[in-house]
Specification:
This protein is α+β, with helices and mostly antiparallel strands. The protein has 14 helices and 9 strands. Strands 2-1-3-4 form a 4-stranded antiparallel β-sheet. A 3-stranded antiparallel β-sheet has the order 5-6-7, with no helix packed on it. Strands 8-9 form a two-stranded antiparallel ribbon. It is globular, with a radius of gyration of 25 Å.
Length: about 375
Amino acid sequence: MAIYWICPSCNTPNSLNKKKCKCGTSYPKSGNRKFRVQVQINKRRLSRSAQTLAMAREIEIVLKEKLLKEKYFGKENKTSKITLNKFFQDHYFPWAKTNLKYSKTIESYYNNWIKDRLGEKNIDEITVQNIEQLKVNILSSGRSARTAQQIIAILKALFNKAIEWDFLKKNNPAKNIKIPKFDNKRTRFLSEKEACKLLKECKKRTTSKNYLYQMVLLALSTGMRAREIFNLKWQDVDFKNKVIWIRDAKSGDSRVTFLSDKVEKELLSLCSKKERNGYIFKKGNNEPFHEVPKIFYRIVNQLGFNKNIEDRREKVVFHTLRHTFCSWLAIEGVPLHVIKELAGHKTLQMTERYAHLMPDIKRKAIEEIWEKIGLFSD
């Protein structure tokens, strides 16, 4: 049996005896703290989340009593007693908020696609055919295969937890659902002129409520993802050495990026000693942004970047700024392995999409050989 405190910077669970996480963050003495409770008896383990230490201790007692009851009186049959909506709201989503990076995305997809279509069914009544029909609905609505893949992945994870927590006694109905293959790679990046126009317009319409100019400048200058920018805290910025520590990145590894003079100046203009441990870009109550301000897309449309473009891979979105950063590096001849490190790609294969933009080094090398052969033939 154990209670762990969850690191607010990297979501790592730590023993209560441990006062500092491996990422360097200290145990939060107050504020928005989170805890995880784990109880195990006879190889049967239960895990729950809590918002306060007092609540965690109460949950620990309840879970212990539950497992002891199961040990001597057998497990309670919970299947058919709970709908998918109730399981999601009362069990899965509270767990996801503490344990998963993309809980907001999960909640959005669930509410938009799953809740009304499958949510009122008892969890053990949902079949493979039900999920296949959901897949058909997603694809026939014009959404991409990638969207269908993400929604089915959420269902797979949800049913896996239902099985683990003994809410479901049968096999995962989403396990073998096939998704059509898709190419989701974006090829569009901004020219220098387009980037200049975008920055100029963003600067005009930036307020203390959207921080649009600073976010766009940071994405173009460092290749940071939107979520990495939203989660950035003042403690992650080392002005002395002009670097930014990007923690809890999508790849699972932290990385370092570098501050240009322009970005440093913009961040210093926002810096406040009172908020040293808070988020750099926050909406209020020290909470970070969870989505790109809508004004960004209004500016993109106003500038005509997406006019008459149907292929979604060619449309300018916030992620295009990251793609632009990588593309510009490739055009300048920066080696692929360096681009990989700067962008935080998990594999070199992800970086190789930029290879065609690099100066034609191979042709140049062959032409030099030809010149030498020409000298010998004379």
